[in-house]
Structure formats: C-alpha cells, structure tokens
Design goal:
The chain is α+β, with helices and mostly antiparallel strands. It is 21% helix and 38% strand. Strands 23, 24, 25, 26, 27, 28, 29, 30, 31, 32, 33, 34, 35 and 36 form a 14-stranded antiparallel β-sheet that branches. Strands 12, 13, 14, 15, 16, 17, 18, 19, 20, 21 and 22 form an 11-stranded mixed β-sheet that branches. Strands 37, 38, 39, 40, 41, 42 and 43 form a 7-stranded antiparallel β-sheet that branches. One of its GO terms (molecular function) is lyase activity. It is found in: Periplasm.
Length: 983
C-alpha cells in the first residue's frame, strides 16, 4: 500500500489523541515516575527513614508527631485555625501509617492492625470532608492558609496511596482534592477589570499559591476534567511559570538567577513562602528526572528546568546558609522573627544547607528546640523533615561573607556555635526596592552574636499588625540624623535609603568591609574592621552640606536594672565612655568616641520582639555629636565571657581615637576626615603616624609588630621605622602571622614597600608583577598591577633568643652586619660565620657577646673586614646559651662589588607542553635549582639546571604559577616569574 494511504489514518489518530488529552487535562510528562509516594519521599526510601527514627532527636520528633494524631479529627472545619489543624492531622496520620511504627518506651514497634486501620479511617474521613472553599479574588490574604491546607492534604493522599490504598477506595478523596485545587486555580487566574492576582502580586503570596497548584499537579497528575480549572496540566503550568517569574524573571522579581542575591522580602518571608515551595520542589525531584520542559501561562511559554535540580534555587539556599547566625537562627532582617531557623531546608536533600541548632539560650516561650522550630504557628513540618532523612552538617562559611546583591556583609571568627558573628546590612536595587510592606528603616544597621548569645539586636518582627513598633530607624543600630533615619517601608513602598557594600578584604588576622548609605541629606559610610577574630572596630564617617545633630545607636540585649531573664546593662559612660550588656554569662563591651570627643552619652529604653506579638525591653546606648556638618564615630565592640579588653579614648580635635590592651596585644586606632599626616603616642606604644582616614596598628606583648591597616593611606610609621609606604593612596593591610609568615592586602595597583626583617623565600599574590628585597634597609618592595591578597615567607629563625632583624650591607671593602633581638634568655653570645662563593662550608670569623637575659630590644653590630670583595658572601649566626646549646639563624647574602642583577627569561607564555628557561647575569654552574610553585607557595616542580633548560609542564594543571631560581644554599637568585599554563 502506498505510504500516503497510511498518513491520513495516522493523522486522524494523532489528532484524536491530542484532542482527548486537551479535553481531559491530565499531565503525563515524559520520564515521570508514576509510583506512590512521590511527595516527601519515594517507596525505596521508606525503610531507611524508618530506621532513622529509632533514636536521638528523630525518635523524639516522631514520638511527638505520633502522639499528635491519637484522638479524633479536629472538629472545626470552617475557621482558619480549624481548617489548618485538620489538614495537619491528615498529613501526620498518613506519615505514621506509611512508617507503620509507634513509640513504645524508648523503642519503636509495628502498629497494631486495629490501630493502623483506625488511622486510615480517620485519614479518609478527613480527606473526604475537605472544606474546598477558597475566598474570591481580589481578596487573597486567606489563600496563604488555603494553600497550606491543600499541600498537606495532597501529601496525605500521596502517602496513603504509597501505603497501598488503590484509587478505587479513594475516589471521593481524589474528587475533593481536585475540586479544592480547581477552586484555588479559579480564583488565582480571575480577572476583574484587567486586574488579576499574578500580574499584581509578586511576593510570598504568589509563591505559596503557585507551589500548592504545582504540588497538586504532581500528586493528581492523571486526574481528568472538561473544566479547565480542574485540569492538572493547567495547575503545573500555573505553578511553575509563576514561581519562575516571581523569583527570577519579572521586573519586580524577588531574587536573581545569576548570583547569590537573597530574597528581597527577607529571611522570614522566604521561609514562609518556601514552606510551600520546598515540598513542591522535592516532589518534582521524585516525580521527574532532571531536564527542561515548556510551561505556558496566560499565552506566554517558557522552558523551565526541573526546580529540584535547578542551580538557581541553590543560590537561594546558599544565601540562607551564608547569613545564618552561629546558633542556627537567622538575623532578624526586615520583617523576620528573632527566633527563626529553617531546618526545613532538609527538603533540598543537601545536608550543607541544614546546620545544627544550639538554642539553649532562648527563652522558654521562644522556638528553642528543633521540635519548636518545625511546629511554627503556620505549619507543622515534622513529617517533611523526618522524611528528608538529612544529618545536619557543620557550616563552612568564610571569615568574611560579602553578598552585595542581597546586601549582607558578615564577619565570623569560625563556624562553631560559639563563634563571633557580626552582620551589617547594605541593600540596594531590586533587593531593596521590591520589599515593600516588609522593609525596615535599617540601612547600615548591624547585628552581633557571640559565644552562643545574641548581643546587639535588630528588633525583629512582632506581626504584620505591629511591625512599625520595631521596624523604624530608632529600633536599629545605625546613625540618626536629627533624631531620625530611613523611613520604614509600607505596603507598596520601600524605605528611602539604599545602602551599598564596598571595599572588602579578608586576611588571617584582619577582615574589613564598608557599607555606604545616604538619608536625610547626609552621607554615611560605616567602615568595619574585625581584629584577630576577637573584636570589632566600627568607624562611621558622617558628612552633610549643613550642620546636624548625629546620634550613634546600639541596641544591646540587656536592660539596666534588669534580671537574668532580660539580661542586664551597666555603664561607666562618664569616665570611660563605655557600656556593658550581659546575658547568659556573655558580655558585650561597647566603647564609643567621636571626633573631638562625643558631646553626650545617654541611655534609652526600647523594645524588641521575643516571639510572635510578644516583646520585652532593652537598654540602648546613644552617643551624640551635635551641630556639625561632619564627624567620625569610632566604636570598639568586644564580646567576651571573662576577660575584657581595656579600652581608652584617645580622640583629638581632628580625630576619633581608641587604644586597646589585652594580655597578648596592644592596639591603637583612629579615624579622621581627611588624609593629613597624623601621629599618635598612646598605650605605651612609640609614636605611630599615618596619613590614612582610618588607621590601625598593633604589636604583641613582646613589643614586636603584629598587624597594621590603613584605609586610603600612603604611609604608616612606628617610631623611627617605616612600616609601609605606598606610591598610591590605597587600603593596605600588613601583618605577621607567625615567625616566618606574613600576609597582606592592597586595594589597587601601586608600588608598596614593607618592613621585613629577614629576606623572603616566597612572595606570592594574584597581581604581583615584581618584587625585590633591600637587605640593607630590611624592606620588601612589591609592584602590584591591581588589587591583591599576598603572602610572604621569610627564612626560618630557629633562635630561642628572638631575633627580629639580621642585615648585612657592603661598605666598600667592609661588610657590616647588624642584628636585633626582642627577648634574650641566658644568651652567651653569637658566633658570626661566613661562606664565600665557591666555598663548601661556613667558617667562624668572630664572636659577639650577648646580653644574657633581656626583655627589651638589644642591638648588635659586627664588621667583616676580610670578606672577598668580588664574591657573594653568605653569613650566619650561631647563638650559644649559657649551657652550651646552640641555635642557628637564617642565612643572609651580600653581593660582590661587581654584581650584575640576574635576569630570568621564559617562553612561551602561556605554555602548553614545554617552557624554555634562560638565566643571564649568573655564571654557569651545576648547582642552580629551578622551582615552580603555586599562588599558595606549593612547589610543584623542582629540578637542577645550568642557566638554560626546557621544562615539561604538560602534566600540570592549567593556571597561574611562579618560577624562581635558587643557588646551592637555597638562596633566591631571581624573584618569582609569573607563568601561565594553558593546555
């Protein structure tokens, strides 16, 4: 038969099938797993979930859930609370039936047949008598409850089908669910004079409604109807399209698909929405494999990936993990409750998003346990959490978290529950403009949590009815201008102050970041320095065209004359300019000053939220600077349990200054409006001078350099010593982390000279173009082509006597050696040894007696008048104790009088297979070595060579490396040469 004779009948069959599916409205995507259960878990996971409930916290959660269903179905099927209670009862009952276990003492036993049958009868009765009413649009407030009811009932139906109940025994239940979903769909797409829900509402309400419809499509995918509102294919199109639109696509979207941008309404309303979205996303992962399908809504069609696998959702989960406080709660940003965690992120299936809770310091009426967190007022998520079967993982956040798109700047001392944590807020753009009715007047505000206790508060969220009681600028830790600040957002209108995170860096001992904002005609930049993961310096730079009265605020968690329950506050503001809050054995000391000293220190009493519609009082510290166009506030915030830092005010007419001392360090810091050179002499330190706007300098308890930082500076001097010098004004950090390791940061291209007492063996950094060491001056000069963290390793100093400087310099035919010690203990003296180029061994050339015992700087000098003038000469000290024990210093080198600087050339760059290397300016020798090393200093290739060679780099990973030449003594002949490998 000709082919055309087949085409017509086949076409008729195709059109008939297409028309039948269009009329039925079922959703049968390719690859779907049609087995039950398919929402919280799959059949293959039931056994492992059951086993996980046998002990520990899971046993406790399951026991509580089981006990909640022992009784009759809640009778109220009309009021919101009653309807929610019935849906929760149905879901929890279905989970117990699926698990088929009950607690008996400290173990689980199989359900008795009659008990199991009773649970199933109760569950079917609840499903068959669902109140399917959905309030008519344009009123949608109660849809938040309807959507949660629908999700719980759908999960209950799904789990019961997974137990083995067939469809024929649940016809009525299925019909009720289909009607309920259809009613919600009908109202969500209703159009009144061109006004409809999804086109007007782009927030948590839209996400909750869409997620409930999407989950309904997964559970009842095979349901059919000639009514469009009751067709699963329309539910899924509505659900996925609008979730995708609200989160990622719309002009007023709540987040961003290209970076961690948070959720604009804040952590609580993210959680509130995602208590609906997460069950739907998890169900999609159980129902469909990874991939894209087209979904159509209101005439527009999009290709949307299965959300369970979509990395865009991970960006939201990453945000929530990144801002998490050490005890497992979220900072109370925007309209967020102070006691809120989100263990429900277990539904993502990824343990890294679920951190352990450490809530022992919360009050009895707060969500102070995992059970309480999962039984929030709005929904019971215990079954969902247990079904996810996730073991919480320790957090892995960096010391500094910088999220400019979501407005989060977080400093941490670690990731354990007792770590220090400081959060500063800096939202702008969409993250700030679409928050509308959930936005606070909080630009640049901070929250501090340490040692397991919240210490500096944002005031939280009582409820939507009382949000303005705790959401104003006077409730937040920010600068007030003439007693006011950014306006609180209202429905449809955000606050009037954007804020921007900028100029951040992170090194081992110091981390830094700024939040810049403007309101009420005033520019404010809050500059924050985390010092040794121990305390925080906040420098607020305030300026305006006209004079104002400025007030620095800190809302601490404690009340003057308070109790153990409220926390306490004490102060010595009149003499020491500081206040101390104490709660649960943890203290926060705040020492605050201003340029030319503050005009007044006062205290106020404010309220913060404890839990839903419950508040308590706390004491607020207020520091004032009045009638000025510009000023700087400088605050030291020190969280501690036993030993507080001693802090003194050192402000001058032109600076705001503080000095701090503890058992290990002496620190000094000051802020000034301009970049004039200013010197300080305080805190038993020699004079410190700088031309930076913000300066920090620290030495340890032996008097040795520890850390330094200048913000927009070019120079820092300590006594007669130049600590750092830059050709360009920049943010610069320089610090010593141990005897031979140094770290730093520079914010731009510049030539930077740093004090370095010993020659470097390694200098690494992303944008280092060249460096050299001046052995005479004891300085390291580094050329930077752009912003860079960098590291320096010097030669090892094994002396028990603390040698802090060993230099040698040629003066015609004489070589002069100088060295210093910081501490000496039973030091008999130093044998000076020399080895000239060509010699195999060091030999002694003199002895210098030591000081014996000393706790102050000691200076030594030796002249070598017999050193060969043309050769390279190497020197070493042998320090001898009184008991005859000896210790060897690093080796230093002095070039011959006719020394020519060696030049290392390499090609090609980038290299793929081989790298040609040529060394000029050094006599050919067999004892030279090449080292190829990574940015972190790891040596990946080491071989001998004689001035010219070819390196095989074919097996090395592509990336940036550095190449240097060492002589027989391990001395660096050439600085690190940048190499790029690109296969």
């Amino acid at each position: 038969m000709p082919l055309k004779n087949y085409i017509y009948p086949i076409s008729l069959i195709f059109l008939f099938c297409f028309d039948l599916r269009a009329q039925s409205g079922s959703w049968l995507p390719v690859g779907a797993d049609l087995s039950y259960p398919r929402t919280l878990l799959k059949a293959s996971q039931v056994a492992s979930v059951r086993n996980s409930l046998s002990n520990g916290i899971n046993f406790s959660l399951y026991s509580g859930l089981y006990n909640s269903i022992n009784g009759s179905i809640p009778g109220d099927n009309t009021a919101n609370d009653g309807r929610r209670a019935r849906a929760t009862f149905a879901k929890n009952t279905a989970f117990v039936v699926l698990i088929d276990r009950k607690p008996a003492g400290s173990t689980l036993t199989i359900l008795a047949p009659e008990e199991r049958a009773n649970f199933i009868n109760n569950l079917k009765a609840a499903l068959e008598n669902i109140n399917t009413n959905v309030e008519a649009f344009p009123s949608y407030t109660n849809w938040q409850w309807r959507s949660k009811e629908l999700i719980d009932y759908m999960i209950a139906y799904d789990l019961l089908r997974g137990v083995g109940e067939d469809e024929t025994s649940m016809v009525t239940s299925k019909a009720k669910l289909q009607q309920f979903a259809g009613n919600l769909y009908t109202q969500s797409v209703a159009n009144i004079f061109g006004y409809n829900f999804y086109n007007s509402v782009k927030n948590n309400h839209a996400l909750m409604t869409a997620a409930a419809l999407g989950l309904s499509a997964v559970v009842l995918n095979d349901a059919t109807s000639t009514t469009a509102a009751q067709q699963p294919v329309n539910w899924i199109n509505n659900g996925l399209y609008n979730i995708d639109n609200v989160l990622w696509r719309d002009a007023k979207r709540q987040s961003d698909s290209t970076a961690v941008a948070g959720y604009a309404e804040g952590p609580y309303y993210f959680k509130y929405a995602f208590l609906n979205v997460l069950p739907f996303v998890r169900a999609m992962g159980n129902f469909l494999p990874d991939g894209r399908n087209r979904y159509t809504y209101n005439g527009a069609s999009r290709s949307i990936r299965n959300p369970y696998y979509d990395h865009k959702f991970d960006l939201l989960y990453e945000w929530m993990s990144a801002i998490l406080m050490p005890d497992g709660r979220y900072p109370a940003l925007e309209d967020s409750y102070v006691d809120m965690g989100m263990p429900e992120l277990a539904l993502t299936g990824k343990s890294r998003y679920v951190q352990p809770l450490a809530l022992k310091n919360l009050a009895p009426n707060q969500l102070n346990s995992l059970t309480a967190q999962l039984r929030d007022l709005t929904v019971d998520m215990r079954a969902a959490y247990l079904a996810a079967n996730i073991t919480p993982a320790e957090a892995a956040n960096s010391t500094l978290t910088v999220l400019p798109k979501s407005g989060n700047l977080v400093f941490r001392s670690g990731n354990d529950s007792l770590a220090n944590y400081l959060h500063l807020y800096g939202k702008n753009g969409l993250a700030q403009s679409v928050t509308g009715g959930h936005n606070h007047g909080d630009a640049s505000s901070f929250i501090l949590h340490a040692k397991g206790q919240l210490l500096a508060l944002d005031a939280g969220y009582l409820s939507s009815s009382y949000r303005d009681s705790v959401g104003k600028a006077t409730n937040h830790n920010l600068i007030l201008v003439d007693g006011a600040g950014p306006a609180i957002g209202t429905d449809g209108t955000t606050n009037d102050a954007e804020a921007f995170i900028q100029n951040t860096f992170n090194t081992r001992q110091l981390a830094y970041g700024e939040v810049r904002t403007a309101y009420l005609g005033t520019n404010i930049t809050r500059k924050t320095l985390q010092v040794r993961k121990n305390y925080y310096l906040l420098a607020d730079f305030v300026n305006a065209p006209a004079a104002h009265n400025y007030t620095w605020q800190l809302h601490g968690y404690g009340l003057e004359n308070g109790t153990a329950a409220t926390g306490t506050f004490t102060d010595n503001l009149a003499t020491q300019q500081e206040g101390i809050w104490q709660k649960n054995g943890v203290n926060l000391k705040a020492h605050v000053t201003a340029t030319g000293s503050a005009d007044a220190y006062t205290k106020g009493t404010n309220i913060h939220e404890v839990t839903y519609n419950k508040s308590e009082k706390h004491t607020t510290l207020l520091v004032q600077k009045n009638g000025v166009t510009q000023t700087q506030f400088l605050a030291l915030l020190h969280p501690y349990t036993t030993n507080a830092a001693t802090v003194t005010t050192t402000s001058t007419n032109n600076t705001a200054g503080l000095a701090a001392t503890n058992a290990a360090y002496q620190d000094i810091a000051w802020a000034q409006a301009d970049t004039s050179y200013t010197t300080y002499s305080n805190n038993n330190l020699p004079e410190v001078g700088s031309d930076a706007r913000l300066t920090f300098y620290s030495q340890d308890n032996t008097g040795s350099f520890a850390q330094a930082f200048v913000e927009q500076g070019t120079t820092l001097q300590y006594g007669a010593s130049q600590v750092l010098q830059s050709t360009q004004r920049a943010n610069i950090n320089w610090q010593q982390t141990d005897l031979t390791h140094y770290e730093g940061y520079v914010s731009r291209n510049t030539s930077l000279t740093l004090a370095l007492p010993a020659p470097p063996t390694t200098v690494v950094g992303a944008n280092i173009s060249d460096y050299n060491y001046n052995i005479t001056a004891g300085t390291l000069a580094i050329e930077f082509s752009g912003p860079s963290n960098f590291g320096v390793i010097t030669q090892n100093n094994a002396l028990p006597v603390r040698l802090i400087n060993f230099k040698a310099a040629r003066q015609e035919h004489i070589i002069q050696l100088n060295w210093q010690t910081a501490v000496e203990n039973q030091n008999a003296g130093f044998t000076v040894r020399r080895k000239s180029e060509g010699e195999k061994e060091f030999r002694p050339i003199g002895f210098v007696a030591g000081k014996g015992n000393s706790q102050t700087l000691s200076f030594y000098r030796f002249e070598d008048k017999t050193a060969p003038s043309a050769a390279i000469n190497y020197y070493q000290l042998i320090q001898t104790d009184w008991d005859g024990k000896t210790h060897t210093s690093p080796v230093i080198a002095v070039q011959g009088r006719n020394y020519l600087s060696p030049e290392l050339t390499v090609f090609p760059v980038p290299a793929a297979e081989y790298l040609q290397v040529n060394l000029r300016g050094v006599a050919a020798a067999d004892n030279l070595h090449l080292q190829l090393y990574t940015l972190n200093g790891e040596v990946v290739l080491h071989q001998k060579f004689s001035n010219e060679t070819s390196l095989n780099v074919s097996k090395l990973k592509p990336g940036l490396y550095y190449l240097r030449v060492l002589d027989v003594n391990g001395q660096v002949i050439t600085a690190g040469k940048k190499i790029i490998i690109n296969h």
